[in-house]
Every structure is written in structure tokens, then in C-alpha cells.
Amino acid sequence: MIQSLSGPVDTRPWWQKLVQNYTLRTFVQSLFTVWAVITFVFFLIRLMPGNPVEIYVNYLMNTENLTYQDAYNRAASQFKFDPDASVVQQYFVYLGQLLRGDMGESITSTGTKVSSQILRYLPWTVFCVGSALLISFLLGMLLGMLAAYFRNTWVDNVISFLASIVSAVPDYIWAILILIIFGVQLKWFNVGDMRGTYDPATPPGFNLPFILSALQHAILPITTYVLGSIGRWVLAMRGSTTSTLGEDYVNIARARGLKQNRIMTAYVGRNAALPLFTLLAISIGFVLGGSVIVEEAFVYKGLGSFLFWSISQRDYTSMQGVLLIITIAVVFSNMLADLLYSRLDPRVRVTGDK
Amino acid sequence: MSEVVLSVQDVSIVYRVSRGQVKASQHISFDLHKGESLALIGESGSGKTTVSLSFIDMLPSAAKITGGKVLYTRDGKTENIFEFSEARMRDFRWHDCAMVFQGAQNAFNPVLKIKEQFLDTARAHGWRDKGKVIKRTLELLRLVRLDPERTLESFPHELSGGMKQRTLLALGVLLDPQVVILDEPTTALDILTQRAIIEVLKEMQSRLGFSIIFISHDLALAAEMADRVATMYAGEMVELGSTQHIFYEPLHPYSLGLLQSVPRLSQDKDELSSIKGNPPDLIDPPSGCKFHPRCPFAQELCNQEEPVFKEHEPGHFAACHFTENVIEARANLWKKD
Amino acid sequence: MSDAIIEFKQIYKSFKKGRTSIPVLQDINLAVKKLEYLCLVGESGCGKTTSGKILVGLLKPSSGQIFFEGQDVSTLRGSEYTRYRRAVQIIHQDPYASLNPTHTIYDILSFPLFRHKLVKNRAQARERAGQLLETVGLTPVRDVIDKYPHQLSGGQRQRVSIARALTTNPKVIVADESVSMVDVSIRISILNMMMNMRESLGVTMIFITHDLALAKYFAWQGRIAVMYLGRIVEIGPTPDITHFPQHPYTKSLLSAIPEPDPDRTRTKDQIRLRSEDIPRLTELPPGCSFHPRCPWFVPGLCDKQLPQLAPVADSKGPVQVACLPMTQGKPLIPYES
Amino acid sequence: MRTFWPLLWQNKVGLIGFIGLVFYLLLITVFQWMVGFDNEVKLDQINSPPGSRLVLLTRPEDKDSYTKLQDLVGHKVGILEKSGAPTFLEKSNVEGLEVETYRWRSGRGVPESLEALAAGEVDALIIFSKLVRRYVLDPSSRDYKVSLSHLTVSNPKLGPALLLGADTQGRDMFTHVINGGRILIITAIMAGLISTAIAFILGTVAALAGGIVDRILVAIANFIIVIPRFPLLIVLAAMITLNNWLLLATLIGLLAWPALMRAIRAQVLSLRERDYVEAAMALDLSRMHIIFREILPNMMGFVVINFVVAITTAMYDQIGLIFLGMAPINDYTWGVMLYFGRSRGTLFNIDSAAMLLAPVLAIAFFQVCLVLFSRALEEAFDPRLRGAA
To answer: For C272, which of A1, A3, A353 is closest by C-beta distance?
Structure first.
């Protein structure tokens, strides 16, 4: 009476396999979300009462004494839409442009492509936010695990208390605190020298002085992002590890006489870290959101600072472009986190849902 | 009788809680012989799991062993488990004494293949020869009637509950332990799956010759599996004897009460009755015999003096002041059969 | 059957999970006579709990009709429907999950009393709640009525659940595994109390359990329906089912159950199934769903045709089985592969 | 709830948070009323460097002679014409002071007055602390004109010194800090209420209605959740003129509900499966009874905790918006202080630390208190954690 394993004989036809493929499905879902966001942002900018086009038309009428029609046509040429077409038609033209990677031209600096502007600022933000997330994710997991292992001892109390405090304080408050205390009062560094993304004296390129300069300029924003996000990781990892420590398989691993190291890494650590990957995506969105103020505070010329600039200049095409890029980044990092999770958790790999 | 593997002597364990001390297990003594299966039966909170957790030092942090010793003998050498160093205890676990917990649903690390988990266990106890471990694993999986190769390559979630339980049994005997503790091994399993586990267990025990401590609230299972049975009530062992003793000649009113409260399939209409009252509060247990508030035979003495756990006939122990009344009552009750 | 208080006619129920639909109940026909003891027995996933929930109106069947006192429930409207809902009540399995922890016992009992205008004011509600608590043996009432569920023991909570089910003066009570989580020593007293409710309150009891021994005790004067994978495979008077099981599944089940009687349980004949895999509900085998496991499988018959409940050939007994060879009068021959 | 207070008492960290929140409550009610709001623009102080206060400067040999203003009676005191000193002296009502006024001339009058002090033309000088640092204590200063190394700064209690200095218009910053929280806190609470209410209603409806309603609501939530909230908020703020706190609260609330809505939906779904809810259904208790008496009490803790968390989110959002100048800056709030700090360069002014740190710390502590309190609530409401304690 040998028992056979029920299940994994896959008899689905190829097209069904394709449709039910987890990676593909996640990807299509992400594309759909991006499309929805594009549509949302487009109509938001076009159809809101007092929408940017209207405002711009009014602005032109007031400043340059144009008639409504002239002003409208002028606005249309700058917003890159056909003034005679309906909003829906404009929408499809816009979609087509987007597919070709064309986000239109900046309104305030005529002739500059929004996409090239974004490409200029994006890498710095990606560099900053990316390294900050990596640092706080790894460090946070480590501290969280530590707190969970020493549950209800002073180690845990200190770590959890500090994590609560750190997670409570908004990242831009950290930025201001760093500036006031270390920059202005203690003069540990010269704030003025650290503005921008690198020292204009060092030519960009893959060489040590440039990298050092880039790091020097990024260190403050990175520190701020780390401070702003690490508390969450610590608390999440502590909670996750605590509940994993209570799992049967961990107890049984102990009863099996496994060495402590092995239990802590392969049994507790791996399982406790799993839920954090889902949080990673949310965190990316959060940190990117905060980058607007943090970059502004440190005068770091990244995407957030560009967004703020375009908003204060009422440069709607740039604004639209940046908002889109940020959302797409979040959607796809969501997807990546999902896929990463499914790589790490065999339960998802097979069934395709959590 | 054959040699004693595990000798439990006067072990007491308490849990510290905010209200005081829960006297979870008090003055537990018994000997486990080589190759026998001993059932610990009792209701929830009777302390049967607590005492067995203490053998492998797996008690929760709130628990404290307040007395007693557990002597373990292997190859003629006897040691007190409670005095083990950490390293010795780690090696003792699973290699000498494996514990199969209830609810195997979650017994395996969900992110590792079954094979990894067998290898992990072997590696932790110094078995370096991977091929040999795999060979033994395949053998054991076949013994528990699973498809060995496929089980080995599976992740835990790909196995059904019954399969996991059997895989865990195979893992339990991987290192050829002398003692296997089974904590409610069939609870939450279907009847037919439970039957398969029972068969597998019996076969494994006869092949490998380990001793079993069997923890259950299910009298029927004990009747089928055990050579000897110990009844536990409110943290104390109240009766210990052969399966025949406990099921046909119980000396303790609680054992008798339990037998009276379970229906039997093969009989026609049974005369059943519950034990009156509720299990006692273990922080503030009743004076004297802890069972006396629920006992139909209780007299003034029971309230005042704790009965001694003593041998009434060879191999049959009980802690009751008035065993002769129990014998009389049981004769009256079972005459009708 | 005019004396049926509740009747299932061709009840089907399936749950949707994503794109797949899981058939939980298939073609259930069952008539429960007034004041009859009926037990639904089966392993987990057989659909017994779903049947219970459909019976009390918590779930709607996917197709089929339920008759309450001869009326099709789906045609009942307004007060008629309310009358039906009040007349059938359920007692859940887990005494720890079935009482809302934020309410006192009085609250729990008084909500339905007020809702159905069975009492006019607080004083009346308290009095009625007290009566109900006395009915279920929770005396003295004043020790219980203002407590929160967490202050009571498992057995006491289960009694409160029963009292709550009685608030609406029901005619039918479905007890879903209602004692399986209660300590062994007090199970019977709760079961006896429920059985007494038939006489004292005129309640028809439907008992759902996986434990055949309990089913036998409870429904000795009634009937047992054995379910397997969403279908009733055998139904008949309890003594017939427990002593002379007909369907291969019932036979295996009975042979697999250990008994609290060492001699008897060890000499029991064991039926060996051909497979221990329980098919998934989403991938039910064709024909009789038990055929891949059945030791008396007849190729070409059992795997082709769907068996219907019918009396065993040549017998005029009241037992009905869903087994093609038996109903067609063919002898059961062990299947050799 | 009856078990809540003892649990809070045991949880010292949570207690700190709770006490802190009570303090903030007092701040926006009682303290605020007691301190008042200094909205009087002092034209004579218009040039005062932000955050500085008046100090008394003397020659070293007189270091300990003047501990209060009265000690200067009969002596000559130098003041700058447009500094706060004239008003201060006027208000302090000390008779018999000889006052010598020096011209301000964009600060260039300062060295003059200092020279006068060094030369013994005046016995003491009432001057801004910031200028002292710049002209007297910092030898590298390019404005260093005279040798004043023998001068000492002493600071007798010059009347009611401004705790946190004055802003660029001479208004008492301390009163601003005390007053700057009310609107923020009320708005944050409103936004928290709005988002929690939306999340609760939609989550409950989605879970109980199921089917297509559920799928649509969840899809909307999933959609909103991927758009980074803060950038969207500033884009929206660029289009809607946020001149109204209720509007701001509504906007924040409208964007912050999805995560909580999904969590509440999951909670209701799991609670709905509880046996006691099923029993209530079997007893034909009303839908309202089931939602409000059976389900809600068992997730009240969850809702309250998330309400507290929602307040922190709203606080983050609105102060962020104000900091960027995209939300109301007419009302003088902590956020506006930061905004001015950034836009007027006070951030980089070494003497303005106290003035900027005050709102920064007020915000930070408020958030910390909320988080500590919410964590205490979590422990109090979670029976699993409670058992472990």
C-alpha cells in the first residue's frame, strides 16, 4: 500500500499554462495598473476644474494679451495636443506618444523633452533611494531579528524603543535635524559644499574622485532615508521573527538537535524574512514620496526635487511625467518583490497565490 | 522485565504566571523499559506534555523544574538528563530521544525540501556520509508506506496531513533513537489515516525496537498501542499499570471514571456517566487528594491527606486511599457485561 | 414522508475558489422525522458540516430543495421564513470560538430574546436567561450569568452555547461536533443533557460527528448517515450500521476505529484499503468516488457508474447503501490488481 | 476596555506616549489659552536677526557688577536704534538710566557702539546675542573692526527674555510654538477620522457584500495604493488651492484609506467566519446587530490602533505640504515655521537653532507619542501578546 503523491502531473494545455504562468500574470497585472495610472493622471490633469491647460490659457491671456482662441492654441502646441481633437482623441494620441517613450516637452523650458529631463534626474534618486533602502532593509532585518531573539530583555527593549521613535519621526524632520545639528551647529560638514549631486569640479565618469564626490553629496539624503525607514523594518522583522519563533517547525528543529546557527538562518531567518519582501514594495513608494522634501531640503538635484521644481513652475507636462515614472517604479518594484517572494517561498511557486 | 532506558524519579515542574505558580507536573515517577510503549493518558492540563517536554529540555521559559531527576541509560552508561550540558543535550535530542509533536501540519520548514530536512538532522548529529543518510531515509520512508523518492524531493506543502505525519515518524527514527515520544500523534487526522499511522508505528517499533512514550487523551488509542498505561490527573500520576490493569482492573476512581465516560462501538447500549465537576485550578489545587472534589468515593480523609502513589500488586501503582471501594464498585458495574 | 420535520431533496452545494468550483455536497436526500435522533458521520471534508449549515439556513444550496414541516424553505417569505430560521438552531464545535468574548453570558442570551420579542424588558430577559441556564445545568445561575466567556471552563461554555440555541424555542437543533473539544470526562454529561432535551423540550436533534462511537451512543434509537466526499454512502438504523456495516467505506471505517478495550481492539479484523489517498473534491474519480480505495472494487462497474442509495439486494431491511455491487446483488470479492 | 488601563500602566513605554499625548491635548487647549499668541509686529525689531535675544555687554572688569537692569541706574547704557532694546527699556520701566542710542545702518552701527563701550563712553550695551557672536566672539569675522578682546558678555536677566527668541518681525517665537500645533493636530485627527471611516465602511461593505461589489472596491483600493501618496498629493495640491484645512484633511483622508480598508476587509472576513457570528446569524439577529455588536467590538482595537496610525500619516502629509509651501501658510503652525525656516534661510543661521528646533521637536515628539501609544494599544488589544506578558 504505497501512497502516491497526488498532484504535480501537469496536464494543462500550453495556452492555459501560459495564461496561468505566475510571472506572466504578475507582469500583465502590473502593465494594467500602469495603464490605469496613466489614464488617471491624464484625465486628472486635463479634466480637473481649473485644470492646468485652462490655467495656462488664462495666464497667456493675461500676460500676453491674447484672445482665448490664440492662447488656447498656443497652450495646445506647448502641451502637445491637437486643440481641435476631443479629450478622448487626445488621450489616445498621448498613449501613442508614451508608447514611443515620448512624454512631451517641458512647458517652461521650451524645446526640452520631459523624458530627457527625467533621465537626467532619475539616476541620482535611484542611486540614493536604492542604496538607502538596501542599507535600511538589511540593517533593519538584522536588528529586528536580534530584538526578537532577545525578546523582553534589555536588548529588545532598547532596539524596539529606538525603532519606534525612529519610525515615528518623518524623514524630512530628520533632514532638518541633521542640517541644524550637524551642519549648522556642530559644523561637522559644510552644508553648502554638499548641495547638488556631485562637485561640478570633478568631471562625471567612472573614476574615484567622481564616485567619492557623488557619495559625499548623497550621504546626507541616504542617511535621512535610512533613518526614515529603518524603524519600520526593525519592527516588522521583530514581529515576523517572533511569530516564526513560535512555529512548530522551529520547535521541532530544536528538538531534532539542530545547531543554533542552522535554526536561526535556515529555519527562522528565511521564513521570517518572507513577509518583509511584500513590504519592500510599499516602502519604495513611501521613500520615493519622501524624496520630494528630502531632496529639496538638501538641495539634491534628483527626481523629487525636479518634481517640486516643475510643480512650483506649474510645468504640467513635466509634473505628469515625473508622477508617472514614480508610479511605474513603484508598480514594477511591487512586481519584482512579488516575483522575488515567489522565488523564495515554494508555496507560492506552485499555487500561484499567497 | 527488560532493562530500564529512562527512569523518571519524582519530577516536579511549575509554570510561573502572573497569578502565581501553576503546578503543572508534580512528583512524577516511572520507568520506561527497552522496547515497550507506555501511554500517558489524561485530559488537557493534566501535565502529560509538560513532563515529556522536560526530558528534552524544551519547556517554555516560564516553566521551572523544581525537583527530581531523569536517569537515561544507553550502552550501560547512566546519566541524569537534568544535569546535561547544553552540547550533550543537543546531541541527546533526536539521537537518543525523538519527540513527535501533535499537529504535524506545521512540523516541517515550509521553504526546505524534505530531503534537506532529513540531511539537516543527520548533519547536526555528525552523520557526514550523505549517501548513507539518503539510503536510510529512503528505507524509512518505505517503511512508513510513502513513495520514497518523490516524498524526498517534495516541499512540505505538497504532502497531505497524513503523509506529513508519516514523514515525521520516519524522521523521528532516522538516528535510531532509544526513546520516541509521541504527543497526540493521530489527533486531527482522519480515522483511516489514523489507522495507517497506528499500523506503521507498530511495524516500526517491532523492527527498530525503540521505546515509546505515548501521550494521548484517547483511551481507545492507548488500549490499542500501549503495553503499560499511566493515568494523569491535575499534574499528578494517579495510576500506573499494564494495559490490562488499567482497562480491566483500574484502582483509581479517575481511571474508572474515564473508562465509564467513553462509549464503545462493539457494545449495544452502554451505561455511561461523566465525572462530575470540572478539572481543578492548578494554581490553587484542592487539598489532600486533588481528585476528591469530583470523586464518588471521597471521604473526609481524602480532603486532609494526600494519598501515596504505591504499588498495590506487582507493577500496578495507584494513589488512592480507598482502592478497595473502587474494586467493589467496579465489580458491581461490570457484572452486567 | 409527511412526518418529516425537515427534508433535503437533491441538495447540491459547490463553493467557488477562483475559477474552480468545489462540489461539497452532491445529491443529498435526507428526511429527518420529528423527534428522531439522526447522526451524520464522516471524516473531514465529507460535507457534513456544510449540510448542517444548509439545514439551519446559514448557507444556501446551489440547487435542490429543503422542506421544513412540509414547506419548501425557498418559498417562505417574511415572518414564515423567520419562523423557520428560529426553529432550527446550531451548536458549534469549538466552545472557545462560539461565544463572543466581548459579551457577558446574559448579553449572549438576551440578544435573541429581545430580537424575537420573546421578552418585554430586562427583568424578564434575566429571568428567562436564568431558566435557560438552569435547563443546561449551569447552576447556580447567579455564578454564571454576569460572567464573560473567558471566565468559564470549556464544558460550561458549551452549555452556554446550548442555552443560546434554546433561546428561540427551536424545533430542530444541529449539533456540529458539539462535544469533540470538551474534556473526555464531561462529554457524556453534555451529550446526555442534549438527549434529554428531546423529551423535555420536544427538540429534534441532528448530531454531526466524526466519532462513530459517540454517534452510536447518541443515536442508538435513531439512524446514522455515513458521508463520504459529499455524498451519503450508507444510511440506516444505528444498530445495523455499527454492528453490520454494509458499504465498504463504512466497513473500513468501523474496522479502523480503535476501542477502549485492549483485548477487543487488538483482535479486531483490519480492512486494508487499496490507497490511503483521499481524492480531492476538485478531482473526484468517475463512478463511485470510493472505488480507488475500495478493497472490493469491481472494474468496469464501480469506476463507470454512479451508485445511488438503495437497499441491499435480497434484503428488506431499512438500510440503504450507495454501492453498485451490493445493490445489484453481486458478492463482494477482494480486488487483486 | 476595563482591562485596558492596568495594561497601559504596565506598559511603561506606552504610558510615556499616553502622557505625551495628554500633554499635547493640554497644549492645544489650556496652555495655548494661558500663553496667548504674540502677533504684534514690532517695527523697531524688524531687523533683529531671527532667534536672537537681547543680552547685556559689559567690560570685563564690570563683569559681575550688573546682575539686573536696576544695577545700571546712574550709568550710561548704549542701545541700537532699531533693535528691540528701545521697546524693552520702555517696557521695563527703570528710572534713571542714561541711554545712548546708536544708529542701526544695516548693522554697521554695531562696531561703533562696541567701540564706545571699549572706550568707556558707555558702561554697558544692550545688544542682540547674535551680533555679539558675530562681532565680539568670532575673531575670523570680516566685520571685525575693533579690538574688543577685553569685553565680556554678561547676561543679567533682561526682563522676560524670549525663551526661543523672536522671529524676523520681533514676535515671540515661544507663543508661536505653543499655538502652532492646534490646527495641525485637529486637521490630522480629522484626516485620520475621514480615512479610517472610509476604510471601515468600504472594508466592511466589501467583506459583507462580496461578489462584484467586493471586487470593484478591492480593485480601487489596489489601484490607489500603488500611486505614491505624497507625490500625488503635491500634484493635487498644485491644482487645487489648498486654503482650507477641512479641504486638506479631506484630501489626505481620501488618499490614505486603501491599506487600512484592505486590512479591515480581511478582519471582517475572518470575523464573519467566527462561530459566534455564525451563531448570531443562525439566531436571525439583525445585520446591524451583527456588524456593530458582534463584529465591531472584536476589531475595535484594530480600528483604534489604525486610527492613531492614520493620524501620524496625516501629520506627515500635511506638514510635508506646508513645508513645501503647498498648503495653507496663513495660519502660523509648526509647519509654517519650518517653511519660513527653509524659505528665509533661517535653517542655516547658527543662532536660529532654538527657533527651528522647537517646532521640529514638537512635531517629532507628537509623532513619537502617537506611535508609542499605538504600540501600547496593540499590546493591550492583542490577546496573544497579552498572554505572553
So the answer is: A1
